[in-house]
Amino acid sequence: MTRIDKPIPRILITNDDGSRAEGLKVLEQIAAELSDDVWVVVPEHDQSGVSHSISLHTPLRIYSVSDRYHCVNGTPADCVLLAVEHLMRDRKPSLILSGVNRGANVSDAVAYSGTVGAAMTGVLLGIPSIALSQYFEEPDNIRWDTAAQLAPTVILHALRCGWSSQVSININFPDIPPDQVRGVKVCRPVPGSIVGVEIDQREDQRGIPYFWLGFRYAPKEAAAPGSDVEALRQGYISVSPLRFESAIQEDWHELSEALRNCLG
Fold first, then answer.
1. Exposed site from 79, 128, 162, 187, fewest CB < 10 Å?
2. Within a domain: 204
3. What is the number of domains present in the chain?
4. Closest CA to 96 of 50, 165, 22, 143
5. Which domain CATH number covers 234?
6. Cβ atoms of 243 and 167 closer than 8 Å
7. pLDDT computed for residue 133 by the predictor
8. Among 37, 36, 74, CA closest to 52
């Protein structure tokens, strides 16, 4: 039998849900369909909400399970940096996949997502990078099979089309069975789903206060036409191209003049 090589030479996978996350197993399955050389470098523990942060004030340790499977006591961005510039420095990955996140990364949440942060870090290193997330409405019934079955095809088609080296791709899968997905839509994240912050103040055994932070969500507010939220609600896979900066089209002449003259 003639051996058929898989299309992507080398893949790095990471996440923000940690080394024991079910979505990581799903991503390993996805990557294995695309490459014979898959490396796993993931945070040892859950790092949700850390965005693009890196560890500048604490040392990082790598706990190696095998030659191509490593856990890091740091953030998703730490994992990408250590993988590309240290563990895989002899031959860097052709593609970075981050996820599969437990829950959607859409709208305002994109700014805080460690899953997206890992992919954006890959872009800074000049490597095509994709974040993947599985939306759910019932925490006890997450449709991992939707991402598992459909992601390889979506990833391959995106790679064949290509995209700017300054952009990462953020893919979210809807909360429906794979055979009910209506297609793929290129979307944009829009503000509106985060409507406030919950601050839960408590006291420890010594009476010293500590705080838990959380967001109040109202995703219906972000369901604007063309948005990622709308696409998921309509049963589509949402694909959002993301970059660190984008041109703002408004006329800033008045502000420019005011600032130019403010110290005169």
1. 162
2. no
3. 1
4. 165
5. 3.40.1210.10
6. yes
7. 98
8. 74
Distance of alpha carbon 46 from alpha carbon 76, whole angstroms: 10
Give the pLDDT confidence score for residue 4 in this predicted structure. 56
The residue with tokens 């800074």 is: 124
For β-strands 236-242 and 183-186, DSSP reports them as parallel
- Reference 134, options 168, 175, 98, 89; nearest CA is 175
End-to-end CA distance of the chain: 79
243 located within any domain:
yes
Task: Please provide the size of the chain in residues.
Answer: 264
Residue whose tokens read 């490459």: 35
Count CB atoms within 10 A of the CB of residue 75: 24
Average pLDDT, the chain: 93
**For helices 22-34 and 144-161, what crossing angle results, to 10°?**
40
Classify residue 135 by burial, with Cβ atoms within 10 Å: 0-12, 13-18, 19+.
Answer: buried
- pLDDT for residue 221: 60
pLDDT-based confidence at residue 22 (cuts at 50, 70, 90): very high
Residue 71 lies in a domain: yes
pLDDT 10s digits, 48-81: 999 999 999 999 999 999 999 999 999 999 999 9
- d(CA 5, CA 78) in angstroms, rounded, equals 31
Task: Give residue for tokens 């791709």.
Answer: 169
